[in-house]
Design goal:
Number of strands: 10
CATH class of the largest domain: Alpha Beta
Shape: globular
Strand content: 15-25%
Order of helices and strands: HEEHEEEEHHEHEHEHHEH
Structural class: alpha/beta
Number of helices: 9
Length: 272
């Protein structure tokens, strides 16, 4: 995929589940496409394309902006692990890897016409200042996280405010994003961070790879005991807990004012 991007110099976008799969420092990287929830420039660029190469896409609800993808099947070629779809025709038992290889090797670059500028203008949010005692809000947190990240970091987010805030953060080189939008199981991220820490240790990469966990206070309730396991195993992730005063995603799905979506909200100071 990266070879195809480099050879064609075409613009590249990712879906939420594809965050971190391409080099976001590439000037041809345009951002995250999530249907109707995309930023206006991303939405316009993707949906005006004459041809979309959709590589390894999962059309789940959260990955498609509640199924609001708006590029036509007549302008789309889909590459999957078990089939290739060209417009409305499906070719089963043909995997993407050998097909991509043939596309790259046989591509006539004279026929590839670029429709977009040489580089995209990445939207930048102004850094807000806080006074002592001010609440930390999402508009303040995410732009600063972008400057906090380093190459080779592993960023793990839970489904909900933690993950969707990350979509507008541009990653440095080789940052891995681990998320769970397939089944949207809240609480997944804490155990995933434990596993990532153990994997980094097993590969002797603790010096050059930080594991960064971003989790809402509601999701944390599900698997908070794994923080104890991290301490027991002397693991040192960076942990950000977003104090949303309850199960925010569940409020949007069902019961925005219901007491069962409340939790005992505290103020979190410490990271481990």
């Amino acid at each position: 995929m990266h070879e195809l991007i480099d050879k064609t110099n075409l613009p590249i976008f990712v879906t939420p589940m594809g965050k971190g799969s391409v080099d976001e420092t590439n000037p041809r990287y345009g951002g995250v496409y999530i249907g109707a929830l995309s930023t206006p420039t991303v939405k316009a660029a993707v949906e005006a394309a004459d041809l979309v190469l959709h590589i390894g896409g999962h059309k789940t609800d959260l990955n498609t902006g509640s199924f609001s993808f708006a590029f036509s099947a007549s302008h789309t070629i889909e590459f999957h692990s078990d089939k290739i779809k060209v417009r409305y025709a499906s070719y089963p038992e043909i995997a993407m890897k050998p097909v991509l290889r043939k596309v790259i090797d046989g591509l006539d670059l004279e026929l590839v016409k670029q429709k977009y500028p040489e580089s995209f203008c990445w939207p930048s949010s102004p850094l807000q200042t806080l006074q002592p005692g001010d609440e930390i809000e999402h508009a303040w947190f995410w732009p600063r996280l972008q400057s906090f990240l380093k190459p080779n970091d592993i960023v793990i987010t839970d489904a909900g405010t933690a993950f969707f805030g990350l979509l507008d953060v541009r990653f440095p080189k080789n940052v891995m994003s681990i998320n769970q939008l397939m089944w949207s199981a809240i609480g997944y991220s804490v155990g995933a961070a434990l596993g990532a820490c153990l994997g980094v240790r097993d590969m002797d990469q603790e010096e050059e790879r930080r594991v960064i966990l971003i989790v809402g206070d509601g999701s944390l309730q599900i698997s908070v005991q794994e923080l104890s396991t991290m301490i027991w195993k002397n693991l040192k992730p960076v942990v950000f807990v977003l104090n949303n005063a309850g199960y925010t995603v569940e409020r949007f799905i069902h019961g925005p004012e219901q007491e069962y979506n409340d939790i005992n909200a505290g103020i979190f100071y410490a990271t481990i």
